[in-house]
Queue: 3 jobs
Job 1
Amino acid sequence: MKYEILKLLSRNARSSAEEIATMLDITEAEVESAIAELEKDGLLRGYKAIVDWDKLDDAYVSAIVELNVVPKAGLGFEEVAKKIMAYREVESVYLMSGVYDLNVVVKGKTLQDIAWFVAKELATIDSVTSTTTHFVMRRYKEMDVDLITGNEDDRGQLFI
Amino acid sequence: MIDYSKVLNKTVTDIKPSGIRKFFDIANTMEGVISLGVGEPDFQTPWKIRKAGIESLERGKTKYTSNVGLSPLLNEISRYLERKFSVTYSPEDEILVTVGGSEAIDAAIRAVVSNGDEVIIPQPSYVCYEPMTRLAGGKPVIINTMAENDFKVTAEELKAAITNRTKILILPYPCNPTGAIMEYNDILELSKVLEGTNILVLSDEIYSELTFSGKPHTAVASVEGMRERTITVNGFSKAFSMTGWRLGYACGPKEIMSQILKIHQYAIMCAPTTSQHAAIEALKNCDDEVAVMLKEYNMRRRLIVKGFNKIGLECREPKGAFYAFPSIKSTGMTSEEFCEKLLYAKKVAVVPGTAFGESGEGFIRASYCYSTEHINEALKRIGEFVNEIKI
């Protein structure tokens, strides 16, 4: 049941306990206590808006930075990941399989900001051996939400 | 000058165009209308199915198929009906692939009914049975099913409707618009009434995948005594979200099917080839996709039913299809009045129950083939409307 609640919240974080309870055919109290538990256990980490930043004139830019890293004995990639996470410019950090190690999503006011941040901060970390920066040109889909097509319903002609 | 009224077939000209068409034409021209009117899924056809259609085009599979349909599709339909509903139909001579369930219904009625024969039609129900009966020269005999019987046909109602001209009983379950279903024992009671007669049953099971009682749908042909007299109609539109592909099928005893086939053969030739290729994939590999959609419908169903009851529009639990059918009697308005005023006052479009037969008076049909946000907004507006008219 917790899984179902998480799925509904990840689709719409503003769903009320009453609505979730109705949809899953359980009581509101059950929903509330499940959510409280999920928050306490750290499964439910936050409720954020999905924003189409491209629609703002002074929107921020973002880039995906691929890092190759020398892992530390006994600590693996965690030490460097923690160091990178601490920057407020960094939106997310993932350890990857494949040709590079860490995938870092970075945001900044301008391309220049990001370029400087990568050159001065990320590239200079001891265990980082190389960086490759890809700037995001346009967001088409963000957190399951289609940002380019509206909500038009192409049905509507046949009512019965 | 041709006097068209003298030229055209009187049976056709006597058929009333759907009265609510005008109403929805108005709705379509208004800005900011939010609709619970549409009777088709909001989900895209699952990608696997679309891909199978595309691949068949790439391979150049664009010719006619045999009249009955592609043989691998007939095999899959047979397997599907067996594993889902425990009914066995031979792909050799008991299944016909049609242009949607609609063609199957039309051809079945035409194959059985001749001048003056009676067709028993339970209402409220989908709008096609009555005109199709008339076009075949038959006489519709309406059973007005009752809310207190959960809109099922009872043995008594059936007995009262049967005459020596009765040829077909139509069973439109799971039911559009009421959401009613008929379970094994309900159908068994009807089977006992029909025992020993020559009356056939045309069972429109297009919503068979969409039941919410926790039990799978009961196919009429799976009920004792029914198989020999039943023509089962089903299709891909609702279950697999394939309305625009226009693909359905009819199954029944070969003596009946061979006659229906003649009508199909001369009127239609064969169902769309691309759709048939796509449908093979639907039946073979899409159980998970159907389950996901069903789960989604079920959540919306609970939301909309509770919403109507909270507003004060009593709504029974619809156990199948994807419609809620709340009563608006508490408002003192007729169904059409309610729908029209709701449209103008709050810009919400729902279908008056009377569109599905006189016995739909006092009800409205609200489809829940919409996102939860959409449903919530519509419910909010309907709630405001009901509150305002109380004053």
Note: Strands of chain A lie at 61-69, 90-95, 102-108, 128-135, 141-142, 145-146.
Job 2
Amino acid sequence: MIMSLKMALRSIGSNKLRAVLTMLGIIIGVMALVVLVSIVNGATRTVTDQMASLGNNYVQAYVWGYGKKVVTMSDLNEWVESEPLIEAVAPDAQSDSMAKYGSKSQRMTIRGTTPAYYDINGLQLAAGRFIKNSDIQNGSRVCILGPSAVDALVGYTDCVGDELSLDGLRYTIVGVLGKSESLMYSGYGENVVYIPYTAMIRQFPNVAEGITSFYATAPEGTAMAEAEAAVRSFLAEKVGQDDWGNDNYYVYSMDVMENAMGNVTNVLAILLGGIASISLIVGGIGIMNIMLVTVTERTREIGIRKAIGANRGTILRQFLLEAVVLCMMGCAIGIFLSWCILRLASVVVAEMSMSFTLSGTVVLLSVIFCFVIGVVFGLYPANKAAKMKPIDALHYGG
Amino acid sequence: MIDLNDVSKVYQIGTEKVRALDHATMHIYPREFVSIIGPSGSGKSTLMNIIGCLDTADAGVYKLDGIPIEDYSERQLAKIRNEKIGFIFQNFNLIPKLSAWENVELPLIYRGVRAAERSERVRSALERVGLLNRARHLPTELSGGQQQRVAIARALVTRPSLILADEPTGNLDSRTSREIIDILHELHEQGNTVVLITHDNDIARQAKRSVHILDGRLSEVQL
């Protein structure tokens, strides 16, 4: 085997220019495959990283207990303490209220929540502060205005410290939100006023019955699916099902979005990979072509080898090995050049915080693919060589 | 050893059928030195191909060591060529990309001889033909006589029972021809069966026995 490998290498080495030209097809094919798929992977990773960094890796739950079974704030707090898969929760109680600032009145969506809400939803403050823990403990009547609420009610951002009234009760404005970068947060279209959850319970009796919606986040490195499962089992225990066997809750996670995104990029990678594979196959045909020429050129050699005792299998193996070695050499060069290109590309797009690395899967895939191409396209010429009759081969060309 | 019985071989050249071997019958015994003599086109190359298991007859029976050749598979024939027959060709038929050493080594590789023994046998074969000092040279770097001696080394490295030489001196001058013939004589004396095919009466006379071939017909001749 080692002998045959040496023979194949020598035979390839004896005509270097031709070998390189033949390999070129494979080299370009491998480069196309590896570079394209790696770039798609790199771009996908960048986008998903950005999505994650925006703080949108949350699980959202809706609960409807109809007054019989409820989830309270203290239930949530206890659960967060004991559940390792959940890092933070924030209730999201909603109500409707008439807000009055100076002489202006406007209907507003009131959201009662806790400090954790800010990070979970990736909000951005334009001025002031968000809800604090002390606000929750005291049920302080403070509020934070969303960007549209500021536009609609106040008209300028510099209103921290002013007072407004919600259904007649006075609240101090402690903060104003700016436009967030969050892609997923939906609250901006509405006129939203955030107040501490405890203040909400005091003023709006319908909220006191229980939490109807909350957000939960998982510690870094936890799969969203696991966090989602933890939320589900918590709610199954707390509120369970109604009399007709339907769940009393609904859980929704960003995982769904990520999966959808993943599907799109997978399709893209497969599509591009497929196109690149075609060029690999073309390269394989080039190998077959040259191998056929080689077999014809070496007819006499085949005859000599057969006369001194090579059988069909020996000759077949020799030429097949030569084709496979040619393919694998092309593959190795192609992978190396791809690595160079990706390094170069990474430097060029470094400002866009993108990076491209050689994906192990793609490398493995292209190695296997090249091997298969070598075998498939080497088989016909090798078989042609093996089938030659020793006498015809010996007398070929004189 | 070699037992040809009523062997015929017909070639189709264009529309004409050429009877290269016409009911040839011949026996060669172990340890004989036989020359087969005939002008070009007489069918002696065909005879050599059949004796050397490179080609099969159209009709008749060829037995090598008592076993009919037709019964063998392609794989078995390759094994017979490797183990029993050592070929020496007019145009040497060395593989140009391989050095003298590697050319001699090749049949042993095909036979599956281990590296240590291989190297030992190649060394002694090259020593025998006096070319050990040129072992690393490519065939193109050697003279005709040297190339033929490499070919002889390749033929005898497998220790075949039959050495088949097809016009071994055809491309050589008379001095180197004599060297080659001397080597063949030595091989014969050491117990090999040697079949020498030639068109040259002087060369043929070297053998103990001569068979004449003309138009595919064989006849014993006394020299």
Note: The first helix of chain B runs from residue 44 to 51.
Job 3
Amino acid sequence: MRVMTQVAMVMNLDKCIGCHTCSVTCKQAWTNRQGTEYVWFNNVETLPGQGYPRRWEDQERWKGGWERTRSGKLRLRSGSRLKRLGNLFANPDLPEISDYYQPWTYEYKNLTEAPAGDDLPTARPVDTITGAPIDKIEWGPNWDDNLGGAVEHGPRDPIVEKIRDEVGEKIRFEFEQSFMFYLPRLCEHCLNPACVSSCPSGAMYKRSEDGIVLVDQDQCRGWRMCVSSCPYKKVYFNHSTGKAEKCTFCFPRIEVGMPTVCSETCVGRMRYLGVMLYDADKVAQAAAVEDEHDLYPSQLECFLDPHDPSVQAAARAAGITEEWLEAARRSPVYDLIATYQVALPLHPEYRTMPMVWYVPPLSPVVEAVAASGHDGEDAGNLFGAIDAMRIPVEYLAEILTAGDTDVVDAVLHRMAAMRAYMRRINLGEDRDETIARAVGLTGEEMEDMFRLLAIAKQEDRFVVPSAARADAEALTETHPFEDPGCPVAEHPDRVMLNLGPTRRSA
Amino acid sequence: MTDLLLWGVLPYVSIALLVAGTVWRARYDQFGWTSHSTQLHESRLLRIGSPLFHLGMLFVVLGHVVGLLIPQSWTDAIGVSDHTYHLIAVGTGAVAGAAAAAGIGLLVYRRLKVPAVRRATLRSDHLMYTFLLGAIVLGLLATILNSTGATGGYNYREGISPWFRSLFTLSPDYALMAGAPLAFKLHILFGFTLFALIPYSRLVHMFSAPVKYVFRPYVVYRSRGLDKIPAQRRGWENTR
């Protein structure tokens, strides 16, 4: 057993209201610069829809992620190492800017500086890359938001195409018959990252302390293999610096025990951050299991129980501190993934072992039940509806369990049971243990799960151990404040690194 | 005097600039060390032009190494006649040279015609492309002139090659170059200027060919390693 630590995220999709606050605050923090105009480390997609970049899930086209060879080994989908080196001069799988969108701004100056006259001044759209005026904006980072234009664009969603081809049922985009939910996406900080594995320069790496995947900006040579090899299309090419950039999981904040910007600013409070302990020796094998449906259970098996004394002993031997072990025991992410098993990985079939997991939304089912005039919070009604509404379940299974609808069914049943169980409590009725038992949980667990999913406060949603205190002391030794290169040197009496009070503790 | 400067001094100045610039850049500007790819803006033309140019250049360089470093006496000794040698050299050289020229032609056309790529052109590119294009065109021109007999049957293996080899012994036989045809002379001057430009332009990416990739494990782990943060100032401006 080789114990490693990872700061992971879970998102409860039922609570995402699609407000894009996470995307905007992330962009303000990280990518509001020249060269990254089109880059959204975090974005929110409406599903069904094509996503950003367009049709990113179409791995036939982009060759992202891993594939299992006939001999049972893992190989990047983009081919052998030598093949990738042969493609250095021109990467055949690289998305172009138009696959993301042509970034634009408006000539706002016209509005404020136009001379007084009879005509209203206009602010024309301008391409931010070339500076040329654009006649008609035809695509954006979020063009099909809330199913806008879904009649035209929806059928081009790769998952919609797949379900049509395999299940033979068409997903409808007519207003009354459609379903939708939001999917906020950021880098998955995978246990078996394809981007890192494809980087010819060795500039990309996974941090051994917290599992955050980063690009060393000094070592990146701009070969662009990471951009195409990431199946989630979450590594971007900065066209100004000529280097790759990606979601940093806000590591400067994580290091001092603060949540990422997207998590902290989430209006729906649907994000959870916490430590996962995993056995690094198991990862390669778990990612190479033959049946794609086994990938979710095999990843679950990589995770270690932080309450298990033998795991704790092995973790201590591996140099993991008590603070991290304590955080691992209190990890909301571990509870949602392993204890209650309501969170699922995004596209496990890419075999990257992603570490941002999702609680699938029950809302398409609840809404359909309620719309048909039935009680949308009755356990029996919901269970029946989950079994009857194949299309949303098939769709969720395609994105979260490599198409295994049984797992999605089980999770949705658990969510539906929690709804029904808690409704009785809220109405002052007796606790109905049979509801909990029907989905393999106790009433107590059900209430705990409810607290975590519905009303948890920040300190319970974000349990991030601080790595900063010891580091800060080491840092002031190597980087004294008198150093002219130090950005806080100008007012050493006023500006300090933001430590101490911001750290969240139990 | 001019001969001494051009063929006895300039090559060393060029190589000194190349070495010093590369060392400086490696130490202070790792962040700027990239190919500055523009594939994000335009892929269709690049996918033809770039491999054509790069692979063509690879063989062109190989051809130069063979032609300049292997003395005629060696090929004579193994029984390769002058005629056979030139047949092979011009034959393979023409293919490689044509590929490189067609590739760079397409790339330059793309750089001028695609607005986003044009905007992404760096200041150093103007100078670099001038000398790169110049060197390739002059090289092709010299080869054509020489093989059509326009240079009066000049044998570069008796003039340019021995001079080039004498550079390595630090006793440049610059007088050998006096008799070379003008096209060859210009090609060499453009070539040495280009060498000097390598570390100061995007050409520097040629030194980071990722050979090690074939041998390393797929996933790279690194510790946060605070002790490894360099305390010295970087070579570019601080952000404001």
Note: The CA atoms of residues 94 and 228 of chain A lie 5 Å apart.
